[in-house]
Amino acid sequence: MRVLPLLAAVAAVGCGSTVLDAAKFEKSCDTPAQCRPVTFGDICQPCTCQNGAVNEQGFAKYQVDRGAITCPPSNTVVQCGACNQPLVACVDGGCVLQ
User: Fold this and answer.
1) Contacts (Cβ under 8 Å, ≥6 apart) of 79
2) Given 17, 40, 42, 67, which is the most exposed site by the fewest CB atoms within 10 A?
3) Are 71 and 18 in contact, with CB atoms under 8 Å apart?
4) How many CA atoms, within 13 angstroms, populate the side-chain half-sphere of residue 27?
5) Is the distance from CB of 62 to CB of 54 less than 8 angstroms?
6) Residue 52's closest CA among 17, 93, 98?
7) CB 89 within 8 Å of CB 96
8) Helix (H, G, I), strand (E, B) or coil at 36
9) CA distances from 42 to 49, 54, 72, 94 (A)
10) pLDDT at position 15, please?
11) CA–CA distance from 77 to each of 22, 46, 47, 74, 81 (Å)?
12) CA-based nearest residue to 90, from 44, 53, 61, 60
């Protein structure tokens, strides 16, 4: 039966997630200077803007995790509006966007 080996090969090729989960990154802070804006969710979707914040330690992990994601090519042309300039803040000991 040749279907199973083909399915196994497809599964092994890499169906990795393109989603960055905010819960996996450190956000604790004392001041806004410790915070960096980032994009959470499916980062391969068109028109993604920065929608969260992490601290410097979280940002280092974010860069590694983001660098490990390769978005599939798309033939779709999408015109996106401008993203708002995010302002980071440290609220109740955690980095957030305002």
Assistant:
1) none
2) 67
3) yes
4) 20
5) yes
6) 98
7) yes
8) strand
9) 11, 17, 12, 23
10) 54
11) 28, 9, 11, 8, 13
12) 53
Per-residue model confidence (pLDDT) at position 2:
35
Q: Which two tokens stand for residue 8?
A: 């196994």
What residue type is 68 in one-letter code? Answer: A
Residue 89: both structure tokens together: 């803040």
What does the DSSP 8-state code read for residue 45? S
Assigned token pair, 37: 């804006």
> What are the beta bridge partners of residue 54?
36
Q: How far apart are CA 37 and CA 22, in angstroms?
A: 12
Residue 79 amino acid letter:
Q
Beta-carbon count within 10 A of 86 CB: 19
Say how many Å lie between the first and final Cα of the chain, rounded.
Answer: 56
pLDDT (tens place) for every residue of the chain, 98 residues total: 333 333 333 333 345 799 999 999 999 999 999 999 999 999 999 899 999 999 999 999 999 999 999 998 888 888 999 999 889 999 999 999 99
